[in-house]
Amino acid sequence: MVQAIRVHETGGPEVLTWEKVEIGEPGPGEVCIRHTAIGLNFIDTYFRSGLYPAPAGLPFIPGNEGAGVVLTVGEGVSHVAPGDRVAYVGPLGAYAQERIVPGDRLVAIPDGIEDKTAAGMMLKGMTAQYLLRQTFDVTPETTLLFHAAAGGVGLIAGQWAAHLGATVIGTAGSAEKVELAKANGYQHVINYRDEDFVERVKEITDGKGCDVVYDSVGKDTYPGSLDCLKARGVWVSFGQSSGPITDFNLGLLGTKGSLFATRPTLFSYIASRADLEATAGDLFDVVGKGIVKIGVNQEYRLADAAQAHKDLEGRKTTGTTVLIP
Predict the structure, then answer these.
(1) Number of compact structural domains in the chain
(2) CA 308/CA 316 separation, integer angstroms
(3) Residue-range definition of the domain harbouring residue 197
(4) Beta partners for residue 323, in sequence order
């Protein structure tokens, strides 16, 4: 038996319960790992609240990413062995001291990258990778807007996009978060509590608008995000921290300049083993070279996951947060 956080009914942070669970032995293609750190992500709150239904129903263990040490491997697993340091983004179940993981979801953590860093960067870092390198190919000619610039994905994306030579504009909700974003690659940061971000984007771009807008906020930034785009620009909606968009009007894309809209998810971009290795490899490369620095800004005990969720949803956290078993 190991300790884990489980959800027996969806709701607020108070539904996260700390209890003993049985995890069993790894089957064919599976690996048992002992977590050393677990990543906290906004998607965790979506599953906890019921906004996203847990695939296997209730009860469930939340969490999609972690890092740790391989304990045992099942039949057919040859790319990792007991004692290896590994990280993953995978199916729900990360909020536990130990867990069984599909072996093909594990990647080796390179020397020089700490477990806490790996645990907190896999989902957010690979999200930044597919957003900047695959969903839209960011180049020195690109002008982009990234909402929630001081969030976990935002801080990684700002550094990476600046390295790619883009003009990087961000939004944030406090003076402190504005400064944090500026320290992480953003040339222009708009405090959306004090300024109209649409008008400021127009000023910054001399009325031209952006090539691409990355929007993980949802309800509060729609349809304003569309008004920040050039004709034939791309709106990338990849989250909904302020709530879902319930009144999306496809016709707006035409009236606002023949815009493109997409709703990507990381799991579509890393579905195959080859895609996972390529995406993770690109992330490890920029982190290993110091191009992107991953700041673990908050740590909580795994048993205190409810408080971590309260702080995350209350916008009291910045950058990367990890849970320590």
Answers:
(1) 2
(2) 10
(3) 140-263
(4) 38, 300
